[in-house]
Design goal:
2 copies of one chain form a homodimer.
Chain A (H helix, E strand, L loop, with lengths): L4 E7 L3 H12 L1 H8 L2 E8 L16 E2 L3 H5 L5 E4 L5 H12 L3 E4 L2 H18 L3 E2 L10 H8 L5 E7 L2 H13 L3 H10 L8 H4 L2 H15 L1 E2 L6 E2 L7 H10 L1 E11 L6 E11 L11 E8 L3 E8 L3 H20 L8 E5 L9 E11 L4 H11 L4 E5 L3 E2 L2 E12 H13 L8 E5 L9
Parallel strand pairs in A: 1-2, 1-4, 2-3, 4-5, 5-6, 9-11
Antiparallel strand pairs in A: 7-10, 7-12, 10-11, 12-13, 15-18, 15-19, 16-18, 17-18
């Protein structure tokens, strides 16, 4: 066996399972270089080998029996992405008993049976990793367990269900009713045909149980957690909240008053101030606001679900599995023997903000615009210049162009007889949000 | 030697050094339980042993000679928080050569001499950890190296200098000039007496060099990085930007077009859309927006400087050092043998949003208010009720009170003869931002 390869048994080839496979193929060399260890999918267990899929797993790797994964002594790590609780429980249990590292994104499984499974993992000394189980691509589990290891966590406020957040966002943006927003979410694939698990708040509830357990270091009993969904939220409430200066969010709240205080764990629709960053979390995005006694407030934001973001979290755990297998520590992923090939700044693109102080005369804007055009720079907006006697401010936004061209244009503008002060040029980054699969 | 203790040599007992020491004392048991290893400060090197300090280090641990730390065979890890480049370089070099793990928050040192130091660390197989060097308490180094290990990083947009962000925020909020905002920042301790390193953009530049090196996996030459500060930003520019729908931020930009493209690394004042989360990063807070090809957009937000947030990052690296020393992997920090003691939801406090549909008659609000008062709930805001024939909506915000009291009040309100529909109650979380030292 190659100690520098991690042999993976992948259980489940649905959306996320296929995503993990595809992303491991796509970025395999990169991940191998970073982990010092190749991540090799050795076996894939699917429920129905004859099902037609968007992505076909390599036939030679496929089995219909997940038990083969737990039994295969060559497999180092089992990635459980089957969903459901019953069979997934049997697989994870068998895997841990066989001493195999387990990676899972199954929050229902962990919330319902985690107490037994974590106990088994401890007893056997085998890692049970679950970054993908909470907030998808947001690395909140590692952040709490490792990055904030020196903190007592005082509170967590999390938007951890993208379906609910999409519905609430649309109700606010479009002023539509819950039923209409839900239908829209279903049409776009953001809500299941049976949306109960999400809109009841229980998917967020499962995540709250895991976060609460991490914060307290002890197990949070699911039976004691209060979970309320968003089905009863009326468009009127969203509107009133907005008039009062708030947005309505489904919040998972984990909170403790003082060191000895009891732990509060609940999921309820809640108003948050419109100015707060949590109110700026729109659509299917998730965010987790953590308050530690040392670090203060920290917020983690990203895609909470979807094939690729969840794959990113699973692959992070596979990196941990590599370290566990090899018993090594991560050193800086910088190879100082190589020098990065940098883009000359004049070739870098962005939009621009430009302010000129010019003679307050007709024709000046035309001259400036012509000169910019000669250098391939287009004006997308001009602000009404404010005139002051015989001088005028000219403020404009320029479209995407290389910095070098803009600088050349600027030098020429500075030399125009109608230019009174040194022009002010700032970068403008439109920062469109990238959609993920 | 106790394999379950990590012996620390702390070099530097300024603001951050003292913070690390104090937080290790305060949360020592917690950190030991989580890391499976006690973090013991064995020796503290200070420049001037006679200096009067806000916090005194234990005299028995103090030495004036940092060379003692590198030479002491009992020390596992050197925490370099001396600042400056020359002596810090000598210490880190000596420590790595002696096979000691190094933790540093010194971005200037790493940006200027990192190429040699990372090479030495690789050669000796010793971890050189630097979470505290970029964005203070925000765990961005671990996020990029471990959590996003499966991603090609396509871009990073970072607000990584709190001093500049404070000045720009105040210029925008208060409409004041750069000089006035800088003076205010200095008065509040957010800017140094000599602010050059911050306002020139070079502190952010050091961080951009480290982030760029992590993204590319190769070394970014500081000489090739374009760095521009905020000294030339006029109040007028901030105002125009706002009118155009943007906020001005000092952005560290790391970006690559395609796999083979050259890497762009630069620090420049830039306009970002007012609706974007980066525009909502106010005051001394930092934020880093990372786009990965698998995870999509992820944003990390928190305190970028200060004694405690930076200590949090140093202690995170000390946790890594424990794992490096013991060669073990982190398992879930949940002890399933214990059950978390949960707060009954009726005892949990928050503010509330309440909507009633009542008879459109005089005196109804008074009856409701009296009833809420009986249960200890105060009304902080009432929205002008919208009347519809003989019924009226009554929307109010209630101050901090236990959920149980509010629910009891609500049951009684529901039974009033003037109440027409089931009242709607939602939580309201004010989410004040916590200041950190």
């Amino acid at each position: 066996m190659d100690a520098r390869a991690l042999q993976i048994g992948l259980a489940g080839f649905g959306n996320v399972g296929a995503g993990v496979y595809l992303n491991l193929v796509r970025n395999g060399d990169l991940v191998a270089a970073r982990c010092g260890c190749r991540l090799e999918v050795r076996r894939i267990a699917v429920r129905d080998v004859n099902r037609v899929r968007a992505v076909d797993p390599p036939a030679a790797l496929v089995t219909a029996d997940w038990r083969e994964l737990a039994a295969d002594p060559e497999i180092d790590v089992i990635v459980e992405l089957m969903g459901g609780v019953s069979e997934a429980y049997d697989l994870v249990k068998a895997a841990l008993e066989a001493g195999r590292i387990v990676v899972t994104g199954n929050k229902a499984l962990l919330a319902e049976r985690g107490r037994e499974l974590f106990a088994l993992a401890r007893e056997r000394g085998v890692p049970l990793l679950f970054e993908a189980a909470v907030a998808g691509g947001i690395p909140i589990i590692k952040a709490i367990q490792e990055s904030l290891v020196g903190n007592r966590i005082e509170s967590i406020y999390g938007i951890v269900n993208g379906t609910c957040n999409y519905i609430l966002t649309r109700m606010q943006e479009a002023g539509i009713a819950y039923a209409e927003a839900l239908e829209e979410a279903q049409r776009l694939g953001y809500a299941e045909a049976d949306p109960a698990l999400d809109v009841s708040g229980w998917d967020a509830g499962h995540k709250a149980i895991l976060l609460g357990s991490l914060v307290s270091g002890a197990w949070v009993d699911p039976g004691s957690v209060v979970v309320e969904g968003i089905e009863h939220i009326a468009a009127a409430d969203i509107g009133y909240a907005e008039r009062l200066g708030y947005a309505v969010k489904l919040l998972a709240v984990i909170r403790r008053k003082g060191e000895a205080g009891l732990l509060e764990v609940r999921v309820q629709p809640s108003l948050v101030p419109s100015q707060h960053m949590l109110a700026a979390v729109h659509g299917v995005f998730n965010a987790v606001l953590v308050r530690g006694d040392v670090v203060g407030d920290a917020l983690f934001y990203g895609s909470g679900a979807g094939r690729d973001p969840t794959s990113s979290a699973v692959i992070s755990d596979l990196g941990e599995a590599c370290r566990a297998k090899r018993g090594v520590i991560q050193t800086a992923l910088i190879n100082p023997a190589e020098e990065a090939a940098l883009l000359p700044v004049d070739e870098s693109f962005s939009h621009y903000y430009l302010r000129l102080n010019v003679d307050n005369l007709p024709g000046v804007l035309a001259r400036v615009a012509a000169l910019l055009g000669d250098h391939g720079a287009g004006i997308t907006t001009v602000l009404q210049p404010e005139t002051e006697g015989d001088s005028a401010e000219l403020v404009m936004v320029l479209g995407d162009a290389p910095y070098g061209s803009i600088r050349r244009a600027l030098r020429e503008i500075a030399e125009l007889d109608c230019t009174r002060e040194t022009p002010v040029l700032l970068r403008l980054e439109p920062l469109e949000t990238r959609a993920t699969a």
